[in-house]
C-alpha cells in the first residue's frame, strides 16, 4: 500500500491533468487505491477548475470506476 505521505507529495507536485491521467491508469491495477482516489477527489474539489469542466471530469472518472 502506498503511504499517505507519498500520496500527498505526489498530489502536491503533479498537475491536475497528470493526476487524473495517472489515476485512470491506476484504475486498471488490482491494488487498493481507494485512499489515493479520495485524496485526488479532495484536492480536485479544492482546485480552480471551472465547474462545468470539473463535472465532466468527475462524471468520466465515475463511469470508469463503474466499468
Describe this structure as you would to a colleague.
The protein has helices at 4-13, 16-26, 34-46, 51-66. The protein starts with a helix and ends with a helix. With 67 residues, the chain is an all-alpha fold. The protein has 4 helices and no strands.
Rg, Cα atoms, Å: 12 Å
Largest sheet: none
Number of separate strands: 0
In total, the number of domains comes to 1
Percent of residues in helices: over 70%
As a percent range, the share of strand residues is: under 5%
Distance between the termini: 23 Å
- Net shape: globular
Structural class: mainly alpha
List the secondary-structure elements in sequence, H or E: HHHH
Mean pLDDT over the residues? 60
The parts where pLDDT drops under 50 for at least 5 residues are: none
Number of helices: 4
Amino acid at each position: 500500500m502506498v503511504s499517505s505521505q507519498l500520496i500527498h507529495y505526489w498530489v502536491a507536485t503533479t498537475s491536475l491533468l497528470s493526476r487524473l491521467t495517472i489515476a485512470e491508469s491506476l484504475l486498471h491495477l488490482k491494488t487498493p487505491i481507494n485512499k489515493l482516489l479520495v485524496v485526488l477527489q479532495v484536492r480536485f474539489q479544492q482546485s480552480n477548475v471551472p465547474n462545468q469542466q470539473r463535472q465532466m471530469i468527475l462524471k468520466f472518472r465515475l463511469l470508469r470506476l463503474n466499468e
